[in-house]
Structures are given as structure tokens and as C-alpha cells.
Write a structure and sequence with these properties.
The protein has 6 helices and 15 strands. With 240 residues, the chain is an alpha+beta fold. Bound molecules: uracil.
Length: 240
């Protein structure tokens, strides 16, 4: 890659600023001062220093976000706050995006990255990656619903959903409320909400707990995020 691009990507400054810094002989490649930003470097081998400090290059970034309600799963929006707006200035990058969408009123696990290949692998319907949710449901979820979900069924618009694993966590007969966990391997628009609509019930609270091998870190408070650990990332890359 070009040296000025490398300097911009490692946070030294914009390409324009990098040009000035190069002119001031502040940048060296393999111990030689280089002044031309167009110089091609190999970011995996060459040793680049700025003002005597070695720069390390990171191509991909991975953050686990505990998405709160009221924030949309987009990179920018004129009206609403986006999940990218939750990043602190030092973590913001133009190329970060959320892996898939959670509805505005859904909470929970959302991965933010600039790794398009991993995102594709996690979202592709062909890869059957689990998405696990916790939900509060208006209505009493029954064993019949569990069997219905296990065999796959048609939504109210006729769209077919694949078999999923529904677990009843608790039932409050008096208030007609159920708590459930659900594992699906698809990501259709409003899928969980529409699955319960199809059995005449209503999702009143929804939270994503897991995507593939990656569990939401419950230590993260709503709106907080952290870098994925190396093992979380490795496991996610082979996620099923
Ligand atoms: N299913 C939904 O209905 N909403 C979400 O946000 C995620 C899954």
C-alpha cells in the first residue's frame, strides 16, 4: 500500500497531514527517511516509524456492542442515533459497520467490524449460523408452539421459516406473559417478532444473546462495547 495511506490508516494523520509530516523527515521505512507519500510499502514486513516510534498496522477491527433500544443498526442516519455513533472518537473508523441488523427496539449483541468476509460468513443463509435470543412474549407460549417452531412453518404472509429451537424459560399465567429463548439460523426482517405473530402472540421485549460462538458479555452495560478477545475471534471465524 502507499505510505501516505498507511500513515492515515494507523492514525498518524489525514493523507494531507501525512504529506507535511513526511516533508519534515519524521517518517522512516526500514531505518531510511522517506519523504514521498506515494512510496509503496509492505505493511506486513516493512518497519515504519513516525517520530522514532514504530507504527503497527491493524487491518481489521472487531467490537462487541451491547446495543440499547432506540439506536438503529446503520452506519449513519439523519434522524436517529446509530450504533456507530456509540463509538468513542478514538475507535471511530469510516469503514466500520454492524454485522446484520437488530430492530430499533431490540437490545443485545451486535458485532461491529470492517471485516466484510467475516460479516458475510456470519450472515449468509447458507452458513446456518445460530442466532440466540431471549424474549418476553405477550401470551402463553405452549409446548405446541415449541413443536411448531421445531418443524418450521409459514409466517402470516406465507414466507417459510426453517426449524428453530424454542425453549420456554418461564410462564406467568396471571399476566399472560412468557419468557423464552429462541435459536434461529436465519435473519429475515423482524423474524422473531413475525414468528410469534404467526402463533398469535406478541414480542414485547427482545434481546440477542449469541451469534455463532459469540455470547454477549453480560458485564457490558447497555450502549457499552469492547474489543473481541483473540479466542472469541478465532472461534467466531469457524462458527456454526
Ligand atoms: N428478530 C426480530 O424480530 N427483530 C430483531 O431485531 C432481531 C430478530
Amino acid at each position: 500500500m502507499r505510505l501516505d495511506k498507511f500513515l492515515a490508516e494507523t492514525g498518524v494523520g489525514s493523507r494531507k497531514e501525512a504529506k507535511q509530516l513526511l516533508k519534515k523527515s519524521l517518517v522512516s521505512v526500514n531505518n531510511k527517511i522517506v519523504k514521498d507519500g506515494k512510496t509503496q510499502i509492505d505493511e506486513s514486513k516493512d518497519i515504519i516509524t513516525f517520530a522514532g516510534e514504530q507504527l503497527s498496522y491493524q487491518k481489521f477491527y472487531y467490537y462487541m456492542l451491547h446495543k440499547p433500544q432506540g439506536v438503529i443498526s446503520a452506519t449513519e442516519d439523519k434522524r436517529d442515533q446509530t450504533v456507530i455513533d456509540l463509538l468513542q472518537d478514538q475507535d471511530f473508523r469510516e469503514d466500520l459497520f454492524p454485522v446484520g441488523r437488530l430492530d430499533k427496539d431490540t437490545e443485545g449483541l451486535l458485532l461491529l467490524t470492517n471485516d466484510g468476509q467475516l460479516a458475510h460468513q456470519l450472515l449468509s443463509p447458507k452458513k446456518h449460523v445460530d442466532k440466540e435470543y431471549f424474549a418476553k412474549i405477550q401470551g402463553i407460549v405452549t409446548e405446541e408452539d415449541v413443536r411448531h417452531f421445531a418443524s418450521g412453518f409459514a409466517l402470516t404472509n406465507g414466507e417459510q421459516v426453517k426449524p428453530s429451537k424454542l425453549t420456554i424459560v418461564s410462564l406467568d399465567e396471571e399476566n399472560e406473559l412468557s419468557e423464552i429463548q429462541l435459536i434461529i439460523q436465519e435473519g429475515k426482517f423482524h423474524q422473531v417478532k413475525r414468528m410469534f405473530e404467526a402463533v398469535d402472540k406478541k414480542v414485547v421485549y427482545l434481546k440477542r444473546l449469541r451469534m455463532g460462538s459469540l455470547w454477549l458479555d453480560e458485564e457490558l452495560t447497555l450502549g457499552d462495547y469492547r474489543v473481541l478477545s483473540e479466542s472469541e475471534l478465532e472461534n467466531l471465524k469457524v462458527s456454526k
